[in-house]
Amino acid sequence: MNKRVACIGYGALTPVGNTPAECYKAADEGRSALTLHTGTFGCANPFVASLFEDRSAIADDYTFFDSLIIRAASQAIESAGIDPASGRVAFVLSTIKGNIEFIGKQDISLPASAARMARYFNNPNPAIVVSNACISGLAALVQGRRTMLTGKYDYVVVVGAEVQSHFIVSGFQSLKALSERPCKPFDAGRDGLNLGEAAAAIVLGNSAYGWELADGAIRNDANHISGPSRSGEGSYNALRYILREAEIDDISFINPHGTATIYNDEMEAIAIDRAGLANVPLFGLKGCFGHTMGAAGILESIISMMACDNKTILPTKGFENLGVSVPVQVSAAKRSCTGLSFVKLLSGFGGVNGALLFKKGGQA
Amino acid sequence: MRIIRSIDIPSGSSLACLYREHKIEYPKFFKMDTLCKLGFLATELLLEGDSDRFVPREDRAVLMFSRNGCLANDINYEKTMGDYPSPSLFVYTLPNIITGEIAIRNKYKGETSAFLLEEYDEERIRSIVEEAFQDTVTTSAIVGWIDCRSESDWTCKAFLVEK
Predict the structure, then answer these.
(1) Which residues of B fall within a CB distance of 8 Å from A351?
(2) What are the chain A neighbours of B110 within 8 Å (beta carbons)?
(3) Which of A105, A199, B102, B122 lies 20 to 30 Å from A228 when distance is taken between CA atoms?
(4) Least CB-CB distance to A150: which of B67, B69, B131?
(5) pLDDT tens-digit series, residues A254-279
(6) Record: contact B110-A220, CB cut-off 8 A
(7) How many structural domains compose chain A?
(8) Same domain, residue pair A189 and A330
(9) Residue A336 β-bridge partners
(10) CB pair distance less than 8 Å for B90 and A147
(11) Quick one: closest CA in B to A41, which residue?
(12) A222–B109: do the CB atoms touch at under 8 Å?
């Protein structure tokens, strides 16, 4: 149980970059693909989102979603240098809606996508899917870490992705959760989120080097299925758990969910303050990538690791004036930082909240 | 890990009848989709008579497993999305809402997670539940294989387990 679970391979694809390095560069430069879409997916009302232009599949019998998860996993597997066909490798897929655009037309169950991905890599193990609303990617990393700690596998490939569709966009519009402009995380003028598409993957292994996935926790607000707790209960409890043995002075920054909805950002600020982290710098990435749902926990963790490697706090694109009731340290512009660890937060429907603690190790 | 209690709700049973038979008073039940109704009722039956119910606690997790997740309700939402997309149907188009409904009802502030597997695999479920106990706060869990193939065809097995 005391083995060090490290991140040993990375993959990422977004509308602003086809590799983790390209995605990082976009976040560093404050670039985004958030644009107004009119009539896209047959949606009656226009919406702002970050969507892929090239929607090609890897082969005729794969959907775009299935192609994305395979492309992200391939990058991570290649950078880790592992054999994905080994029985000592497990796959975990994070997604919320998978192939929902084909509802009523083909088998769109989420485990079917996970199984196709495992088959593509000739992996013999049954792939599992973690679908925990907007914290899915973070929850999949928690699951991957736990599986590594059992010692039954040498590597776990954690892959997350989301493709947007009429189904998802119309649903968020019906909840009045979308902004009609590029989103403004933590800003006084924020009025909703933007949806985004992405795929990202991390290979977990046992290594004394590189980034350690040091801890993770998932806690429920037990309050409401589609709104966060006003006291930040679940997010605070998850934070309290992962920080029970951590040195707060070592934390470089927090990368929160920061969706730019009124209630999410306020809730997170309260939870961060209750956990004693109000003075720790934080930056949000939704203004760059949009809310990438099942990919968010993995993509945003990768970008945060790269930021910490570069001793950089990234800009929070869209943020100008603090609009939450607690004075948290949201970074508007890029600046430098010290420290060897960071915290990743996410929250989602179903009242679920998650927190991860990453710690930097020696140089590989 | 040991199983303390288990319950099975046969496919096609009348869930409204079951609700009335057990004298449950929770009007929100009637707003839920079938998957959530099953998870809610299975938990009510598992915990019936427990003296310490509804006391907020962080030590009990809710871990739900299925193949189809919320697909049965996705079809209901899809029928509305062209003209008047229904927000009350859309909020149930997530496989983990069932865990949230159980957490709200029982004031469980611990871990809640939804997992999807290609088929019912007892060994796999057991190992994921055992891994969840690595979280040192978690000492018991409501675990379910609740697979809703349609609103009248399901498998619903639920368990109360302890570390």
Answers:
(1) 100, 103-104, 112
(2) 219-220
(3) A199
(4) B131
(5) 999 999 999 999 999 999 999 999 99
(6) yes
(7) 2
(8) no
(9) A312
(10) no
(11) B82
(12) yes
Of A131, A143, A222, nearest to B96 by CB-CB distance is A131
Q: Does the interface predicted TM-score (ipTM) exceed 0.90?
A: yes
What are the chain A neighbours of B90 within 8 Å (beta carbons)?
170-172, 174-175
Cβ(A288)–Cβ(A32) under 8 Å? Answer: yes
Percent of chain A with pLDDT over 90: 96
Quickly tell me which residue has 């009429």 as its tokens: A166
Q: What is the CATH number of the domain that holds A196?
A: 3.40.47.10
Provide the residue range defining the domain that includes A316: 213-358
| Structure tokens given for A181 | 């402009």
A104, A132, A222 member nearest B114 (Cβ): A132
Residues A145-188 pLDDT 10s? 999 999 999 999 999 999 999 999 999 999 999 999 999 999 99
Domain interval for residue B123: 2-162
DSSP string across A185-230: TTBTT---B-EE-EEEEEEEEE-SBSEEEEEEEEEE-SS-SSS--T
End-to-end Cα, chain A, rounded Å: 23
Q: Look-up: residue for tokens 């939402």? A: B77
Residue environment code for A222-241, b if the CB has 16+ CB neighbours within 10 A, otherwise e: bbbbbbbbeebbbbbbbbbb
